[in-house]
C-alpha cells in the first residue's frame, strides 16, 4: 500500500474523528471539574465543609464506576454515532440541572447521575479510536484525545472564573450561571455529534476506497499477530493479571490528576484574596504542564516504540515534583514545581493506554479497556474523598500532597510488575 494512502488516511482520521472527539472530551471534563470552581462560592452558599465537598466530588465516580460495563455494552449494540450523541446529551442535561440545586443532598444526587451519564464515554472513545488506527499510531492518537482534559482546565479555568464574575440576565449567583451555561452548550453539541460521527471506517464517505482498505488491512494484520481469546471477552479480561496490574497503574495516575484538578483552586484561594477569574488562570498552570507532557511523551514513545520506561519515568517525575512542592512555602517556585508535576502526570497518561490496547486481542479489547478504566477510576472516587478527610483533619494541604505522591510512587512499582507479567506472557 502506498505511503501516500497511509498518510492521507491518518490525516483524515485526525481531523474528522479525533478533532471532534477532543472537543467533546473538553466538554466532558469541564462539566465534571467545574464543581472545583463553583466551590469557591457554592460551598459557602450551601454550607458545604471540606468533607462534604470531597463526597460531592466522589459521588460522580460512584455512578461512573457502576455504569461502565452497561454503557460500553450499549456502544457495541447501537453503534458509535447514536451512543456518542446519547451520552453527550444526557450528561449535558444533568450538568445544566446542577445550577438549580438547593442543598448538598441534591448536589450528591446530580453528581451521581452525571457520573452515570459519562460512565462509558472515556473507555468507549479509547475502543472507538482503536478501531480506526493500528497500535503503532495509538499512543499519540489516544494522547490527543486525553489532551482534551488539561485543555478543559487551561481554557475552562479562566472561562469558569469569568462566567462566575460576569453579570447575567437571570440575576443568578455566579456559580449557578456558570454551571447552567456550560451544561447547555454540551446539550447543543450532542445534536451536532449525531451528524458528525460514523459507526466505523467503512461508513465514512470522506474516506476513499483505498484509504478504507488500508485501515481494514492494517487492523486485520495486527489481529493476526495476537491470539484470539478462548473464553468470553469479559472472562478473558477478568482472568488476565495484566489487566489488573494496568488498572492499578491507571488508578495511581488518576489519584494524582484528580487531586490537582478538584482541590487546586481552593489551595490558591486559601493562599490569596484573588478573584475567581485570577484563581482560574493560576489553576490552569499545572495543566499546561499536563498538556505538554502528554504530547511530548506520547510522541517520543511512538517514535521509539517503547512504552514502559516512558510511563515509569513520567510517574516518578510527578511524584518527586509534588513532594518538593509540599516542602516549600507557597510561592512562584511551588507553582513551578506543580507545573513540573503536571508534566509527569501528563506524560504518564499520554502513554498509558498504548500498553493495554497493545496486549488485548480485538475481541476482548472493549471489555478489557472497560475493566481497566472501571477499576482504575476507583482512585477517582476514593482519591478526592480521602484528600477531603486528610485536609479536614490536618487543616493544611501538605498532608494531602504527601498522600498523592505516595500513591504515585506505588504506581511505579505496579508498572514494574506489569512489565514483568507482559514479558512472561510474550515468552509463554
UniProtKB/TrEMBL annotation:
<keyword id="KW-0813">Transport</keyword>
<feature type="transmembrane region" description="Helical">
    <location>
        <begin position="365"/>
        <end position="387"/>
    </location>
</feature>
<feature type="transmembrane region" description="Helical">
    <location>
        <begin position="243"/>
        <end position="264"/>
    </location>
</feature>
<keyword id="KW-0812">Transmembrane</keyword>
<feature type="transmembrane region" description="Helical">
    <location>
        <begin position="176"/>
        <end position="197"/>
    </location>
</feature>
<dbReference type="InterPro" id="IPR036259">
    <property type="entry name" value="MFS_trans_sf"/>
</dbReference>
<feature type="transmembrane region" description="Helical">
    <location>
        <begin position="83"/>
        <end position="101"/>
    </location>
</feature>
<feature type="transmembrane region" description="Helical">
    <location>
        <begin position="399"/>
        <end position="418"/>
    </location>
</feature>
<protein>
    <submittedName>
        <fullName>MFS transporter</fullName>
    </submittedName>
</protein>
<feature type="transmembrane region" description="Helical">
    <location>
        <begin position="276"/>
        <end position="296"/>
    </location>
</feature>
<feature type="transmembrane region" description="Helical">
    <location>
        <begin position="107"/>
        <end position="129"/>
    </location>
</feature>
<feature type="transmembrane region" description="Helical">
    <location>
        <begin position="141"/>
        <end position="164"/>
    </location>
</feature>
<feature type="transmembrane region" description="Helical">
    <location>
        <begin position="54"/>
        <end position="76"/>
    </location>
</feature>
<feature type="domain" description="Major facilitator superfamily (MFS) profile">
    <location>
        <begin position="17"/>
        <end position="424"/>
    </location>
</feature>
<dbReference type="Pfam" id="PF07690">
    <property type="entry name" value="MFS_1"/>
</dbReference>
<feature type="transmembrane region" description="Helical">
    <location>
        <begin position="334"/>
        <end position="353"/>
    </location>
</feature>
<dbReference type="InterPro" id="IPR011701">
    <property type="entry name" value="MFS"/>
</dbReference>
<feature type="transmembrane region" description="Helical">
    <location>
        <begin position="308"/>
        <end position="328"/>
    </location>
</feature>
<dbReference type="InterPro" id="IPR020846">
    <property type="entry name" value="MFS_dom"/>
</dbReference>
<keyword id="KW-1133">Transmembrane helix</keyword>
<keyword id="KW-0472">Membrane</keyword>
Amino acid at each position: 500500500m502506498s505511503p501516500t494512502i497511509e498518510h492521507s488516511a491518518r490525516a483524515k482520521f485526525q481531523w474528522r474523528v479525533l478533532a471532534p472527539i477532543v472537543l467533546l472530551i473538553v466538554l466532558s471534563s469541564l462539566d465534571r471539574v467545574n464543581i472545583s470552581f463553583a466551590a469557591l462560592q457554592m460551598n459557602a452558599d450551601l454550607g458545604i465543609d471540606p468533607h462534604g465537598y470531597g463526597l460531592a466530588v466522589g459521588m460522580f465516580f460512584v455512578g461512573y464506576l457502576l455504569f461502565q460495563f452497561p454503557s460500553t455494552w450499549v456502544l457495541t449494540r447501537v453503534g458509535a454515532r447514536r451512543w456518542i450523541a446519547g451520552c453527550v446529551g444526557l450528561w449535558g442535561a444533568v450538568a445544566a440541572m446542577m445550577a438549580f440545586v438547593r442543598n448538598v443532598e441534591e448536589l450528591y444526587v446530580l453528581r451521581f447521575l452525571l457520573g452515570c451519564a459519562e460512565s462509558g464515554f472515556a473507555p468507549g472513545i479509547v475502543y472507538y479510536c482503536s478501531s480506526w488506527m493500528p497500535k503503532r499510531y495509538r499512543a499519540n492518537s489516544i494522547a490527543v484525545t486525553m489532551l482534551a482534559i488539561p485543555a478543559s482546565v487551561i481554557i475552562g479555568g479562566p472561562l469558569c472564573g469569568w462566567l462566575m464574575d460576569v453579570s447575567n440576565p437571570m440575576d443568578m449567583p455566579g456559580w449557578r450561571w456558570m454551571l447552567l451555561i456550560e451544561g447547555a452548550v454540551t446539550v447543543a453539541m450532542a445534536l451536532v455529534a449525531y451528524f458528525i460521527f460514523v459507526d466505523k471506517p467503512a461508513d465514512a464517505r470522506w474516506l476513499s476506497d483505498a484509504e478504507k482498505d488500508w485501515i481494514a488491512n492494517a487492523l486485520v494484520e495486527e489481529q493476526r499477530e495476537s491470539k484470539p481469546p478462548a473464553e468470553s471477552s469479559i472472562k478473558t479480561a477478568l482472568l488476565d493479571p495484566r489487566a489488573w496490574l494496568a488498572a492499578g497503574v491507571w488508578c495511581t495516575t488518576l489519584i494524582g490528576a484528580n487531586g490537582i484538578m478538584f482541590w487546586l483552586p481552593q489551595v490558591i484561594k486559601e493562599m490569596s484574596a484573588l478573584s475567581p477569574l485570577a484563581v482560574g488562570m493560576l489553576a490552569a498552570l499545572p495543566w499546561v504542564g499536563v498538556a505538554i507532557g502528554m504530547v511530548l511523551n506520547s510522541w517520543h514513545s511512538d517514535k521509539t516504540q517503547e512504552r514502559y520506561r516512558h510511563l515509569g519515568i513520567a510517574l516518578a517525575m510527578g511524584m518527586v515534583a509534588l513532594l518538593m512542592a509540599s516542602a516549600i512555602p507557597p510561592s512562584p517556585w511551588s507553582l513551578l514545581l506543580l507545573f513540573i508535576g503536571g508534566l509527569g502526570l501528563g506524560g504518564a497518561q499520554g502513554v498509558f493506554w498504548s500498553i493495554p490496547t497493545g496486549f488485548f486481542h480485538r475481541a476482548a479489547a472493549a471489555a478489557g479497556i472497560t475493566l481497566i478504566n472501571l477499576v482504575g477510576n476507583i482512585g477517582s472516587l476514593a482519591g478526592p474523598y480521602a484528600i477531603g478527610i486528610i485536609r479536614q483533619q490536618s487543616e493544611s494541604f501538605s498532608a494531602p500532597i504527601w498522600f498523592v505522591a505516595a500513591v504515585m510512587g506505588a504506581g511505579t512499582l505496579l508498572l514494574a510488575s506489569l512489565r514483568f507479567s507482559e514479558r512472561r506472557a510474550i515468552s509463554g
